[in-house]
Amino acid sequence: MIRTTLASVLLSAALVMPAFAQDESEEDIDDVLGDILGEDTPSSDDGGDEISGSDIADERRDLEAGDLDDKVGVKSDDIVLPEEEGRKRRVIKTLQRKDFLKIGRYEIAPHIGALTNDPFINRYLVGASFTYHATEIFGIELSGSFSPDFGQGDWKAVTEQLVTRNRVSPDISKVQYYAGGAFVFSPIYGKIAVANRGIIKFDVYVAVGAGIANTQEDLEALQAENDPSHPAHLTENQNHPTTNLGGGFKVIFSENFAARLEGRTLSYVETVSGDTLEMKNNFLLLAGGSFFFPNMK
Q1: Which of 44, 65, 73, 111 has the most beta carbons within 10 angstroms of its beta carbon?
Q2: Which band of pLDDT confidence, cut at 50, 70 and 90, is reported for residue 232?
């Protein structure tokens, strides 16, 4: 009986070892046990129990069935076959559900900004946009911006020198306001881990549309304010059909608020000094916040 128990223990060890579980067949395990027992296997003449191939097979079936408690003192709960162990592994989801949704919601976004590429004047902007998000990717936007006129306070240093010292009249027209609409396409939504302390959610978008821009010529810079016959008076105030192209990104803080930074280009044809056509391309840099409503469903 002692050697029979020893055979059972050796068989248990062979089954628990992953190498035997994966690479060895049932016949291989039986051969190994036969090699281990060898000539020391007791026979019925010695008063012991003879171990045959059928005994080993029975022990193996008992082990797989978990019925070894009363045979070798091993609890069946402590024996986990490789295939059973695999089913107990924890599954970690690498793709998680999106926790910020825009579909069916409205967005109001006040902004401030500046016109950055005019070589002669500074123009500052204040305005807002209103967007309806038909889907997570597509939205329809209405927007408008106003730029207050500060007179000579808008002039840059080079303009001050040209007008007051050199008596040169640069071509200056000021954007007074803009209004238009656009289709908004938001192809990218993502998350960034910052120093292992938090997650920043962001949304990247582009806008394509059109609108109307109003401009006013600076008669003082053109030295025409006291000359009623100057042709600049004929085109002092103009409205221009313009494109509205750009894009930006939002940093999302909650389901109802995000900070945003964007750039827009306004391209239009302007009449200068009454008789000259000139292509204008103004770049607007805008910053603000976005308020979403109603709450996510």
Answers
A1: 111
A2: confident
